[in-house]
Amino acid sequence: MCGIIAYVGDQPAQPIILSGLRALEYRGYDSAGFVVRENGQWRRWRASGPVAALAAKMNGASIRSGCGLGHTRWATHGAPTEVNAHPHAGGQDEVMLVHNGIVENFSRLKKKLAMVGTVFVSETDTEVLAHLIALCYAGDLVSAVAEAMSRTEGPLGIAVMHRARPDEIVVARRGSPMLLGLTDRGRLAASDAAAFAGWTDQVIYLADNEIARLTADSHQVFDARSARVDKVVTTISPAETAAELNGFPHFMRKEIYEQAETAASAWRGRLDPVTGAVKLGGLLDCQERLKNCSELIIAACGTSYYAGLYGQYLLSESAGLDARAEIASEFRYCQRSYPAAAALLAISQSGETADTLAAVRLAQAQGLLSLGLVNVAGSTLARETAAGVYNHAGPEIGVASTKIFLSQLAIFNLLALFWRQLHGRDRAEDLAWAQALVGLPDKIRQVLALDNRIAAIAERFCHYPNWLFLGRHFNYPVALEGALKLKEVSYIHAEGYAAGEMKHGPIALVSPEVPTVAIAPADRLRAKMIGNIMEVKSRRGPVIAIITAGDEEIKELADEAIEIPPTLDWLYPLLAVIPGQLLAYHAACLLGRNVDRPRNLAKSVTVE
Ligand code: M6R
């Protein structure tokens, strides 16, 4: 949450920082700010609202300075007003600071600082940190940052300037991501490589508690004890920073449409369609431990958690593994000890979700093997877990996750096959499974071709304020995900339920004003879903059924039917999720919502 970009070099900082802020806006978009030091003065602009509002405010300003900081905010402490926007000044304006994270002991520190005469102008925790750095400064900004960090608690990623050192930027991280970008014409720092697009592909990932000093032609990295650290420079692929709409009106739509390719990329080079054999290079080193794994805890948040729930069903049923999905924010506070042979699989698109990382650290503290299923290469999760699997799905920019959910389900299929093969299970079954996977991208395209029909259904129902999503077993996570998508982007209230739970409460909501999306493909629970559909219909609730093509029986019962191609029972979720994504997308567009940047959300939830 919150995006940071900093630049020091021989080019004007303004275009570099603004382009970085636009790329980082998915991390938070309720206010933005920019500062440079020029002719002995700070020049700072801040605006409530998106980066475009900041850019409009700066329009016409002639800024030549090649050293500055930018920030796009997701508010934690204090309303999204201009005065609460970063950069924040510290001391008597000696310091300018941008911050991603939370100063957890800010109220205690604020009281102490107020006692020595500090006057606060904002409601933020960040301002406390700015004043603290100013107070700790005795000629060396790196030492001041180190000292201030030692007095604060909570995750942080920061970039700081001091007026006595106008050509130097100091950045640091503890929990929140921060990486450096190297160019011939200066140094960059940002919370995400996306901010470097068009400027550099040479990056250095800072580790926790590292601090870096940047000047136009140098960078030095220090560890927590102020010792110099030699860092590896990594070349990132253009795919890791690409964020182009390519003619689509929104990233969400583009990413929904990418899903046939997303699925194919998940198993490209990993699944042999002729033998059904699965090779997962990222798990090679821990195969023995995986073979003896007694239980697998799957920890994640939001959409990634729903994918984990699917993984729980799939791995326990097809691979005989004792798997259990846990909401990471709950798991991290669960005071239970696990057997040494257990493993934890953390799932995260961003690889920066604070609760998911905390779950990993908890498992590691108990000596468990930690695995990651992550999309962003080089993210904290990717670096902190012992082994893992990448999604290889390219950047997901829309705040509402779409293609990554599908990719996570695809990878659970690989993991299930992998585990089966580790235990010498029946290869003939695996072959049929592998072939069904390989045929899936075509089926995904067939579902995407229903877009106009789904748009018409969205138009019919988008003014209904409450929806229900029902599914059973493998499609239960799809029901949860469908409801979450609709809530997130259209702000329509929706509940996802295991259809069998209907009678235990939610049926009270059914009425002609509450549409129910029933995920009812021709799997082994179809008849049970028909029962649920009948119950809704007998209470005059409108039903939008997601069914297998040609299922005339359900088609006659439902008010609207979306027909998806036939596949294996456990692969239906990879098709059935798409109509829900498109319903949410179209409803949001019809209601005039900001599809890619829904209110109150951020793509990467780096605070608890
Ligand atoms: O980056 P992660 O997968 O760890 O993110 C987890 C959730 O924050 C995320 O899935 C969230 O629920 C999305 N907004 C869903 O669309």
Describe this entry's structure for a reader.
The protein is of the alpha/beta class and 608 residues long. The protein has three domains: 3-240, 4-Layer Sandwich (Glutamine Phosphoribosylpyrophosphate, subunit 1, domain 1); 248-438, Rossmann fold; 441-608, Glucose-6-phosphate isomerase like protein, domain 1 (Rossmann fold). It has 21 helices and 25 strands. Strands 3-2-4-1-10-9-11-15 form an eight-stranded antiparallel β-sheet, covered by helices on one side. Helix 12 (354-365) links the parallel strand 18 and strand 19 (369-374). Helix 3 packs across helix 4 (126-136) and helix 17 (451-461) packs across helix 21. It is globular, with a radius of gyration of 25 Å. 58% of the residues are buried. The mean pLDDT is 95. Bound molecules: 5-amino-5-deoxy-1-O-phosphono-D-mannitol (M6R). Residues 301-304, 348-350, 353, 356, 399-401, 488, 601, 604-605 line the site of 5-amino-5-deoxy-1-O-phosphono-D-mannitol.
Write the layout of secondary structure elements.
Blueprint: E1 3-9, H1 13-24, E2 31-38, E3 41-48, H2 51-58, E4 67-73, E5 88-90, E6 95-101, H3 106-115, H4 126-136, H5 141-151, E7 156-162, E8 165-174, E9 179-183, E10 186-190, E11 202-205, E12 211-215, E13 218-222, E14 228-229, E15 234-235, H6 238-241, H7 251-257, H8 259-267, H9 287-291, E16 295-300, H10 302-318, E17 323-327, H11 328-331, E18 342-348, H12 354-365, E19 369-374, H13 380-384, E20 387-390, H14 403-422, H15 427-438, H16 440-448, H17 451-461, E21 466-471, H18 476-490, E22 493-498, E23 516-520, H19 526-538, E24 543-548, H20 552-557, E25 560-564, H21 572-590
Parallel strand pairs: 16-17, 16-18, 18-19, 19-20, 21-22, 21-23, 23-24, 24-25
Antiparallel strand pairs: 1-4, 1-10, 2-3, 2-4, 5-6, 6-7, 7-8, 8-12, 9-10, 9-11, 11-15, 12-13, 13-14
The protein binds 5-amino-5-deoxy-1-O-phosphono-D-mannitol (M6R).
